[in-house]
Amino acid sequence: MLNHVLKLFVGHIVYYLLNLLHPILVPIVMKILSWEPPKQKPNPVRARVGKKLAVPETIQETEPPIKLTDLKPSLDYRQILKECQEAGKPIKPVKHRKPISKDTTCPHCEAPYTYIYSNATISLPDKCGRVQKHKCKICNHQWFPAKYRKHITLFCPYCGQRIDMKVHRKGFDKFKCINPECEYRQKVGQRYTWRDYSICLDAVQRYVPPKTKLSASHFSSASIAVALFFFISFPLSSREVASILSGTFGLSVSHQSILNWAYAMAYYFHPLLDALPVHLSNTWVVDETYLLYEGKWGYLFTVLDGEHGSILAQVFSPTRTVAAAFAVLEKASRKFDLTTCGLITIVTDGLASYPPAIQLLASQTKGQFQHCKVIGLKDGKVKNQYRKYKNLIENYYSVLKPYYYRTRGFGSFQGAVTFSVLFTLYYNYLHPSDRFNDKPIVQIDNLNYSHPVLAWKGLIEKATAA
Ligand SMILES: [Zn+2]
Ligand SMILES: [Zn+2]
Prior knowledge:
Layout: H1 2-33, H2 44-54, E1 57-58, E2 66-67, H3 77-86, E3 116-123, E4 130-136, E5 142-143, E6 154-155, E7 164-169, E8 172-176, H4 183-188, E9 193-197, H5 202-205, H6 221-233, H7 238-249, H8 255-272, E10 283-293, E11 296-305, E12 311-317, H9 322-333, E13 343-348, H10 354-364, E14 368-373, H11 384-407, H12 413-429, H13 452-465
Parallel strand pairs: 10-13, 13-14
Antiparallel strand pairs: 1-14, 2-6, 3-4, 4-5, 7-8, 8-9, 10-11, 11-12
Helix pairs in contact: 6-7, 6-13, 7-8, 8-12, 9-10
The protein binds zinc ion (ZN) (2 copies).
């Protein structure tokens, strides 16, 4: 009986407690039931890289910065002199104790050298020694003479503030406008940047194949055509070709003659290559590969047409600098009418020389460019949309590499340049491509393609006639 009363009592208490706690318990239960595992935070670095891979970067057309010499003087020294004269405090010319150049004028008020001091001597932090600062007696402006400046002084064309030099790279200095209220920053969403280029194209474009003449040869053009067919259409050495010619055709030719003929063809075709027809599409695929010359590494830069795979331009350079990348892009751009051809997409790998080179090309020509950086274009997995460019490059290297390996490195820089000319000629106009039903990528008009030796004969005639 007592037991039953206790049970009833406990039951009542539980009921009462449940009723009391109901408003607290229900939300807790609801929360437990509706729990979801937390979402993983996206990796900011990965997101940025992924975005870079997927979206081609349009080359922004930006205004060039304002140079110090273009800046109009904000004050007029004559006006200040006159005002001071009228106020009874005339400014007298400076008595120079230290000599000062007579063409020095104040950049702020155009005061002549007679009002400019040269006595504030200070030490520069990078141990350039003690240098003289100039000071204007009329407007109190102080400045360093241009020869002591580490880099040029530039001003933002959008907000007028002086822009800071951020990095120095081989070939250019990068400047940035740090003004948070800059008009450009508010419009575009990023800071105004400018690269001041100091690249020298001489080292890249100076080399042409050595002058070698074909006319002195006592062999017929048909014999030379057979020799060149074997030497250039197959990755054979000149000695192997000489033995084929004597063994099969009874032609006694020294291996040096074959090399000379190849050099002569490179010499003739170096200027002619630019005039030969080529497929032009608005996608360029750019890549560089190492080639050995004189025991050192050189770099063969190539621009391929993104639709057909023909070589648009090739440049062999001792370095991988901005100058080399710019040289090959500029060479390719000469084949286009940039004012009418529209937007050109340049697909490259991750080499750091390409973005500044493309920027320079965009600033020097009237073309519109966008840059598409694809990491692992040559040797790595790439996404589907870039797969066809990877195929083009692989196709190209599958033909190039056997040719290069027969040489085991070039004896000279000019040897490498000769190779690049002959290879472009062969790859574009003679090599039977499986993507074009065993026909060359581009066919030259009036050239007899019925037999490769006849095509070579036609090319030799074309070269010597020009
Ligand atoms: Zn002044
Ligand atoms: Zn600015």
